[in-house]
C-alpha cells in the first residue's frame, strides 16, 4: 500500500493509524518499526491501530497477529473522537495501577499519524465494479464533514515536527483537495503541505487540483455563492477551492431549481453525470473559484498510469502547536454545527438509482464504513457498547444489546450481571475485558526460574492480563516499554482508551491433568516464542532435521523412539512441562548451543513423563513441514552449485599451471 511509504516511519516513532481495518497498512507500519531490530530485541516505537467497527477490529487483530509484536495496541473508537490521555488533566493517584512513580509519558501524542479515512471508494472500481452501480455524487458530499473532523483530530494528536498522511481511495476532489484545503485553513499556518515529489521517483503521480466543481442534486456549482440557501447546510463553503462564505442570498434558489426540473420533465437522481454546460442544468454565472493554497503538492495516483487502483495522498508537517482558537474547531458542541448537520441530513437522504436500489448517501462502498458524528460529551459520559465475550483479547464476533443500565460503581471494576452472563468492566467501557498489569510475583518468579529467563530481558512489570481474578488467569501478554508507558498513562488519566487488543500473547495456562502437576503451569505460546527464545537458558532441545520432521509428522514421540538416541536422552532429563525444540542447522554435537537469528526454526513442545508432544496447531505443523522441504531443496541446490564452482576452479588452475610451464622457455629463464 502506498500511503505508509511517505510517512518516513523510524523504529523509535509513536504511530497512530486512525482508521486501521482491515490491517494491511498497520502491518506495513509494524514492519517499518521492526525492520532494524535484531531477534529477541524490541524497537522503541509502537503503533496504535484504531477502528470504529467492532467486527472490523477483529479482522485487524487477526491480520496483525502474524507480526508477533508486543508494540501494538488496537483500540475501538470513532476516529474523529479519538481520546487524548493527559496526565495533568485527570490525574488519578491509585496505587493499584502501579507504583507511585510518574509514567514515562504524561501526554499521548504521536510522531506519525495515518488518516486513511472512510471514503466513497470510487478509486477501487477496477477490483470492485459493483461500486459503479451504487455510486452517486452525494456519497462524497456526505462524507466531507466527517473526513475534515478526522483530519483535524489527527493534527491535534500529532507532535510538533511530526508528519501526517491524509489519504483516500477516491478521486472526488470534495473528499480530497477540499478536505486538505479546509484543514489548512483551520490550522492557520500551524501545519504545511510537504512536497514529496522527489520521494519514490518510480511512482507515477499527478499533482493535486487547485480548481474543481461541486455537484449537488444534479447541478454543478463552481462557487459557494451559487449554492441555494436551502442547500447550504449540505453543500458547505469548505467544499469549494477558496473556502469563502457569502452572506448574500444565492441567485439560484429553491423555486428556480424546482421550476427548471419540472419544465424539462425530469427529476434529478444525482446518479447521472451532467456537464456544467448542459442546457438541462444551466451553469451558474459566477466565475470558478481557484485555491491559493499549494494543493499541487498533493498526489493523485490514477489507475491507467501504472495499472493500479486510484489513491489520493497528502502529506502534512506540523510546524507549531494549535492555538486555542484552532482547538475550538476540534470540539463538537452539543448543538450540531453545519458540518454535523450536513452529515446528519445526508445520512437520512436516501436516493434511488435506475435499478431501484436504495443508497445511503453517507455509506461507503464495500470495505468502507459509514460513521455519524456524536456529541462532544461522549468522552465524559462514556459509550454504551454491545456486550462482548469476556476472557479474550479479541472482541466477540457476535454482539448483543446490553439491556442493563450502567451501575453507579462502573469505574470501580465491578461486574454487571445479566441473566447467566457476566460482563467485566474496564473503567467506563462496558463489555470489554479489563487491561491489568500482572503482579503475582510468585508465579512470575516460578516462570523465570523454570525457563531460565535472563535478567537482562525486561520481564517484570511488562506482563498484563485481561482477567480480574489472578487465580484464573489463562493467558499472560507481554508488552514493550513504551506500550507499558501508554497503559500506565491511560490508567492514571481515567481510562479513556477503549482497548480491544494489546501486547503479545507470551504464556498460556496448561489445563490438562498432567499440566497441573508440572513445576510451571504456564507454557510458552507460539506467538511469543520468537521474542523470548534468545533470552531463555533452560528447557531447550536441539534436534536434527530428521527428528524435528518426525515431531511435526507424528505429534507425539516416546523418548526411545527418536532417531538420535542422544536427543531422547536429553529430553528425558528435562523437567516435566513446556520445552522448546530448535532445529539444528548442521550436524554438530547436539549439546552445543547455536546462535538464534531470524532464520531459526523452533516449536513449543510438552515434555511428558515418557514422551515429547508438539504444542503447535496442525496448520502450523503443515506449514513448517513445507518450509523444511524448501530449506532442504535450497541447501541441496546451494551445495551442488558450490561443488560445480569448485570443479571449475580446479580445472582452471590446472590450465593455468600448464600455461605457466609452457611460458618457462629457455629465453625466459635466461
Short characterization:
With about 675 residues, the chain is of the alpha+beta class.
Number of strands: 27
Beta-strand fraction estimate:
15-25%
In this structure, how is the largest beta sheet organized?
A: 10 strands, mixed
Put simply, the count of helices is: 17
Percent helix: 25-40%
Low-confidence regions: 94-98, 248-264, 266-283, 332-426, 664-670
> What's the pLDDT, averaged over the residues?
77
In whole angstroms, the N-to-C terminal distance is 73 Å
**Inertia-based shape:** elongated
Q: What is the chains' assembly state? A: single chain
**Structural class, judged by helices and strands?**
alpha+beta
Radius of gyration: 31 Å
Give a structural overview.
The structure is a single chain. The N and C termini lie far apart (about 75 Å). The protein is built from 17 helices and 27 strands. The strands form 6 sheets. Strands 1, 2, 3, 4, 5, 6, 7, 10, 11 and 20 form a 10-stranded mixed beta sheet that branches. It is found in: Nucleus. This is tRNA (Cytosine(34)-C(5))-methyltransferase-like isoform X1. Belongs to the class I-like SAM-binding methyltransferase superfamily. RsmB/NOP family. Keywords: Methyltransferase, Nucleus, RNA-binding, S-adenosyl-L-methionine, Transferase, tRNA processing, tRNA-binding.
Amino acid at each position: 500500500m502506498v500511503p505508509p511509504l511517505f510517512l518516513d516511519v523510524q523504529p523509535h516513532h509513536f504511530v497512530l493509524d486512525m482508521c486501521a481495518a482491515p490491517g494491511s497498512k498497520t502491518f506495513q507500519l509494524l514492519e517499518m518499526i521492526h525492520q532494524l531490530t535484531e531477534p529477541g530485541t524490541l524497537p522503541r516505537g509502537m503503533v496504535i491501530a484504531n477502528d470504529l467497527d467492532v467486527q472490523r477490529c477483529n479482522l485487524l487483530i487477526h491480520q496483525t497477529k502474524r507480526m508477533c509484536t508486543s508494540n501494538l495496541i488496537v483500540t475501538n473508537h470513532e476516529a474523529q473522537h479519538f481520546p487524548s490521555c493527559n496526565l495533568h488533566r485527570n490525574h488519578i493517584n491509585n496505587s493499584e495501577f502501579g507504583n507511585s512513580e510518574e509514567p514515562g509519558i504524561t501526554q499521548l501524542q504521536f510522531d506519525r499519524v495515518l488518516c486513511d479515512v472512510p471514503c466513497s471508494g470510487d478509486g477501487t472500481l477496477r477490483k470492485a465494479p459493483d461500486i459503479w452501480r451504487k455510486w452517486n455524487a452525494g456519497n462524497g458530499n456526505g462524507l466531507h464533514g466527517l473526513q475534515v473532523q478526522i483530519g483535524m483530530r489527527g493534527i491535534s494528536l500529532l507532535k510538533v515536527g511530526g508528519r501526517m498522511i491524509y489519504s483516500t481511495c477516491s478521486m472526488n476532489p470534495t473528499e480530497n483537495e477540499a478536505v486538505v484545503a479546509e484543514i489548512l485553513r483551520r490550522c492557520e499556518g500551524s501545519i504545511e503541505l510537504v512536497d514529496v515529489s522527489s520521494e519514490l521517483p518510480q511512482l507515477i503521480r499527478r499533482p493535486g487540483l487547485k480548481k474543481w466543481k461541486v455537484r449537488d442534486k444534479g447541478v454543478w456549482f463552481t462557487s459557494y455563492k451559487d449554492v441555494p440557501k436551502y442547500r447550504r447546510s449540505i453543500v458547505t463553503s469548505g467544499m469549494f477551492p477558496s473556502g469563502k462564505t457569502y452572506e448574500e442570498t444565492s441567485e439560484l434558489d429553491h423555486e428556480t431549481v424546482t421550476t427548471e426540473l419540472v419544465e424539462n420533465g425530469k427529476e434529478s437522481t444525482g446518479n447521472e453525470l451532467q456537464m456544467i454546460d448542459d442546457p438541462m442544468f444551466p451553469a451558474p454565472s459566477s466565475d470558478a473559484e481557484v485555491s491559493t493554497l499549494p494543493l499541487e503538492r498533493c498526489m493523485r495516483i490514477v489507475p491507467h498510469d501504472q495499472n493500479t487502483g486510484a489513491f489520493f495522498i497528502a502529506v502534512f508537517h506540523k510546524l507549531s502547536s494549535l492555538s486555542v482558537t484552532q482547538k475550538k474547531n476540534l470540539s463538537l458542541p452539543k448543538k450540531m454545527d453545519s458540518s454535523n448537520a450536513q452529515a446528519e441530513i445526508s445520512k437520512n437522504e436516501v436516493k434511488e438509482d435506475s435499478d431501484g436500489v436504495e443508497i445511503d448517501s453517507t455509506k461507503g462502498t464495500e470495505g468502507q464504513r459509514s460513521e455519524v458524528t456524536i456529541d462532544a460529551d461522549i468522552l465524559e459520559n462514556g459509550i454504551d457498547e454491545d456486550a462482548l465475550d469476556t476472557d479474550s483479547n479479541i472482541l466477540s464476533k457476535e454482539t448483543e444489546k446490553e439491556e442493563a443500565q450502567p451501575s453507579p460503581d462502573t469505574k470501580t471494576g465491578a461486574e454487571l450481571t445479566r441473566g447467566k452472563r457476566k460482563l467485566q468492566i474496564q473503567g467506563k467501557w462496558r463489555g470489554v475485558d479489563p487491561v491489568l498489569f500482572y503482579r503475582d510475583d510468585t508465579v512470575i518468579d516460578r516462570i523465570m526460574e523454570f525457563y531460565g529467563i535472563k535478567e537482562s530481558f525486561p520481564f517484570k512489570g511488562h506482563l498484563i492480563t485481561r482477567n480480574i481474578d489472578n487465580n484464573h488467569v489463562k493467558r499472560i501478554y507481554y508488552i514493550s516499554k513504551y506500550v507499558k508507558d501508554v497503559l500506565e498513562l491511560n490508567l492514571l488519566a481515567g481510562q479513556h482508551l477503549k482497548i480491544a487488543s494489546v501486547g503479545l500473547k507470551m504464556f498460556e495456562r496448561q489445563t490438562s491433568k498432567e499440566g497441573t502437576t508440572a513445576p510451571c503451569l504456564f507454557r510458552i505460546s507460539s506467538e511469543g516464542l520468537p521474542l523470548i527464545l534468545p533470552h531463555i537458558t533452560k528447557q531447550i532441545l536441539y534436534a536434527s532435521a530428521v527428528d524435528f520432521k518426525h515431531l511435526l509428522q507424528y505429534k507425539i514421540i516416546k523418548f526411545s523412539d527418536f532417531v538420535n538416541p542422544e536427543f531422547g536422552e536429553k529430553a528425558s532429563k528435562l523437567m516435566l512441562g513446556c520445552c522448546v525444540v530448535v532445529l539444528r542447522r548442521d550436524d554438530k554435537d547436539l549439546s552445543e548451543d547455536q546462535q538464534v537469528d531470524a532464520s531459526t526454526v523452533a516449536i513449543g513442545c510438552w515434555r511428558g513423563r515418557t514422551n515429547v508432544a508438539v504444542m503447535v496447531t496442525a496448520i502450523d505443523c503443515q506449514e513448517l513441514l513445507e518450509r523444511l522441504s524448501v530449506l532442504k531443496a535450497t541447501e541441496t541446490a546451494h551445495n551442488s552449485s558450490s561443488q560445480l564452482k569448485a570443479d571449475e576452479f580446479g580445472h582452471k588452475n590446472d590450465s593455468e599451471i600448464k600455461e605457466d610451464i609452457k611460458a618457462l622457455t629457455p629465453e625466459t629463464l635466461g
